Every structure is written in C-alpha cells, then in structure tokens.
Amino acid sequence: MARIVPMASSIKPSLTSLKFSPTARFALPRSSPTLCRNKVASLHLSSVIPQLHPFGLKTSKLFKEDISSRSVIVAGNTNTTQASTATTQENVLEWVKQDKRRMLHVVYRVGDLDRTIKFYTECLGMKLLRKRDIPEERYTNAFLGYGPEDSHFVIELTYNYGVDKYDIGSGFGHFGIAVEDVAKTVDLVKAKGGKVTREPGPVKGGKTVIAFIEDPDGYKFELLERGPTPEPLCQVMLRVGDLDRAIEFYEKAYGMELLRKRDNPEYKYTIAMLGYGPEDKNAVMELTYNYGVTEYDKGNAYAQIAIGTDDVYKTAEAVKLSGGKVTREPGPLPGINTKITACLDPDGWKTVFVDNIDFIKELE
After folding, report:
1. Contact, 352 vs 341, CB < 8 A?
2. Which one of 149, 222, 231, 279 is the catalytic residue?
C-alpha cells in the first residue's frame, strides 16, 4: 500500500518553492470606491429627505429633482468604475499573451533517488544536472534533463527521507520523450530490466511510432519517434474532466496556445496539445478527456509543473480573473528571495510560476 505523505511536508522549497502551506493566503478585499460613493450619497440624501415634509409641493419637487440629478451622477460614477474594472481585467489578460513564458520543469516524488537517476541516465539518455541534499528538512532533490536548466525543460525529482512509495493516482498520464529510434530505446530499457507496457508500433489512427515504458516508481513514459529536436523531454500528459474548460483556462490564465485538438470517438477520448511554441521544438501539455469521466484521483506522487514569467503578481491576478485558485499569493520566498506564485487549474492540477530573472540568478 502506498504511504501517504502530507503534501505540506513533501513539497520542498526549491526553484519552484516546493514547500507550500496547505492553507492558501488571501489578501483582504479592498473597499469598493463605487460602494463608498453610493453610501455617501445615501447618507447625504437621507439627511435631506426628512426636511421635505414641512415644505409645500413646489419645494418638495425641487428637492426631488435635485435628488434625481444626484442619483444620475452616482449611477454615472458606478458605470465609470465598472468600465474601468473591465478595462483593467482586459489589460491583464492581454498582458498574459505578451508575457515571456516557458515551461521550466516538472516536479514529482520518487522512493529511491539513486535508482531513478540510474534508470533515467542509462536508459533514457538524460544527464544529472545537479543534486541537492537538505538534511535539516529531510529531503533530497535531483535535476535531470537533456540540456541546461536555463534553456531546457527538465525533471526535478524529490526524495523524502524514509518514504519509498507513493500513490500515482489515475489523473496523471505520462511524460513524453522524443527519440530517434523507439525500438532501439525499448531494447535498451529491457536490457536494463525496465518495464515495457506497449511495444513499438504506429499510434492508433496515425503513423508516428511510439512505445510506452515505466520507470522504477511506476511513472509512464511515452517514447515518440522523431528526428533531432532541441527539446527531447516534450510532453506532460494530465487527465481533465472538462476539456473545453481546461483549454480556455490554459489559454487565458497561462497564456498557452492551443496547438491541436483531436477527438477519438472510437476509443472515447479527446486530447488537446497546448504550449508556448511548436511541439517539435518545445515541451507541451497534453490534456486528455475520457468520455464521461469528470474527476480523477491525483494521488500524492506527481506534484506540479513550473513556468517562468516576467511578473508573478500580474500572473496571480490573471489566474483569479480566469477562475483559477491561487494557493500561494505572489511574493519572494524566505531566504532566497525568488518571487513565485502557485495556483490550481479547474481540475486541481498545480502550477508554480517563477520570476524569470530570479530563476536565472538561482542557477548562477
């Protein structure tokens, strides 16, 4: 049986602030200028109205006309405020499209760090970029990938002392790796004792040669046969309960582009590929909707992806405007001053946004 580790203790501080409080912090709402003006107007008008009774009809009519004119002013101010708010929201969402964003890394937990490193380097051709042990916090991180962190999408593994197994759940799908020869890679995996769950062959309904393997912790990897690519670690597949809702959120809040969408009625699922550039040159999100399934068990193994941004404060605002939930308000991390914000998409998948300049400084 999988040992469940509390999320607060298993998410550790790093470039993505992997140790978040389970309680989201929310800023206190500011008083609405419109509300204040309406209250002031109401108080002022209520102090005038009782004085109308002693006077005749003409005088009363004058006051009523005055009140009516003031009501028009208040209504006009309300409309102006609403228009201003709408403009601000539009500006924030438009800014998202111009923000310099890139998928930085994906974070998940493993039960034996050295075993996983050995499998990724020997079977999948990754490089160990760096390793960091934090004994006082009882965890170790390892970063692996196919190129430097400042220009490539990489994997961040987390090992929590004494925890040797996690529940992957049914929501996480797989990671995608582009290789030049799928059959050769599968043979290597088999020779090293790895598990192959789908032998090499064309994808159903297509021509691309693929295969599926599992790492020692049970995470699935899809091997896709492609020519040379600058980003071999090319996909993160997650399952969602409402694909159109998810697409709209990732476009508006995350600034991703819908690269393609494919429905497979024969197998009762639909996929959407979203990212910050073409699939053959960038890492992308593959969102999968299985007909009739609206919820999934997320387990406690997969953690999050990290995305670079020029402004974590505007990013958090865009997430809120798009219906997402901010689980960590934007600001610097204690001790290292890297600015981040963390949020959940409509299906509950976590993403951490990291300030681009701060991220580069951490790597120096």
Report:
1. yes
2. 222
pLDDT tens profile 149-204: 999 999 999 999 999 999 999 999 999 999 999 999 999 999 998 999 999 999 88
Least Cα distance to 303 among 103, 23, 7 occurs for 7
Stated pTM of the model: 0.78
Nearest in space to 149 (alpha carbons), one of 275, 240, 15: 15
136 a catalytic residue: no
Please spell the DSSP secondary structure of 29-67, one letter per residue.
Answer: PPPPHHHHHHHHHHHHHHHHGGGGTTS-HHHHHHHHHHH
Residue 218, Ramachandran bin (φ over 0: left; ψ between -120 and 50: alpha; else beta): left
**Distance set, CA 359 to CA 78, 211, 306, 315, 332 (Å):** 42, 34, 11, 16, 12
Q: How far is CA 321 from CA 73, 212, 254, 293, 349, in A?
A: 29, 38, 12, 26, 17
